[in-house]
Amino acid sequence: MHRAEYRRSCGRYLALTIVLALTIVAASVLAAGTARADDDDDPRPAAGIKDNSFLIDEAYNQGPGEIQHILTLQRQQRDWTLSFNQEWSLGSQAHQMSYSVPYLRLRSDGQRARGIGDVEISYRYQAWLESATMPAFAPGVSLILPTGSQSRGLGDGSFGVEIMLPFSKIVSDRVTLHANAGVTHLFDVHGHSPTSFVAAGSAVYAVTREFNFLVEGLVEWSESVNDAFALERETTFTLSPGFRKAINLPDDKQFVFGFATPITFSRDRSTDYGLFFYLSFEHNVLKKKR
Hints:
CATH topology: Porin
CATH class: Mainly Beta
CATH superfamily: monomeric porin ompg
Strand content: over 45%
CATH architecture: Beta Barrel
Number of helices: 1
Oligomer: single chain
Mean pLDDT: 88
C-alpha cells in the first residue's frame, strides 16, 4: 500500500471511530427518558455486569478499594496468548492503574517459541461518569515495555505508548454500547517507528443481571517491521460474538467467566477463526467482611 493510500485509509478509520463515538452519545440522549445515573443500586439488568469486556475497553474505572484480577486465553491462527491483568483504583474512581503481562506460545508462520511478551503499565482517568444523558468516558495511556524477546518473535524490542479513548453507555434496561478509538506508537523497531490505529465498538444484551450476550467488532490498521527490516501495513476486521456469566458472592465479590469466538478477516490472509476464554475476580479491600 502506498503512503498516500495508507493515509487515506487512516482517515477513513478515524472517521469511523468518530461516528462510533457520536452514536454512543446520540443513543445516550435518546435513552434519557429511561436511563438512570450510574450507581451501585441501579436495578437494571444491564448494570449487573459492567466492566468485563473481552477485546475492547469499557469506560468504567474501578471504584474506591476495588481490585480486579483478569485472566484471558486467546487462540489466533496457531498461536496462543495467556494474559494476566490487574486493575485497581488510586483512592477514588477518578484514577486507575493497571498492568498486563502476556505469555505467548507461537506456532504460526514457522515460528516455535514461547515466553513472556511485552508488558504494559496503564493509567486511566474517569473524565465523565455516566449520567442519564451522557456516556462514561475514561481516556487512558499505557507504557509498553520491551520485555519480550524480539529475536524469538515474542516482542517488538522497543518502548512504546498506547492511547485509548473508550466510551460506554447503558442505553436501555438490557442494552449497553461501547466505543473505542486508539493509537499505538513504538519508538524504535529496527530503525522504524511503527504506528497503529484501532476503531472498535460492542453491543451487550443482558438476559439477566448475571448473564449477557455480547458482540464486539474491531477494525485495526497496523504497522509492523518484517524480517527484511521494512515496514509492513495490514488492515484487519474482527467480529467476536460471545457470552459472559457472573457469580456474585457476599461482601461485593464477583467472579465473571466468558467465552467468545473472534473471527478475523484480512486481505492478505485467510479468514481466521479464533477462541477466547475470560475469567475475572473483583473484590473490595476497603469493605469489612460481614
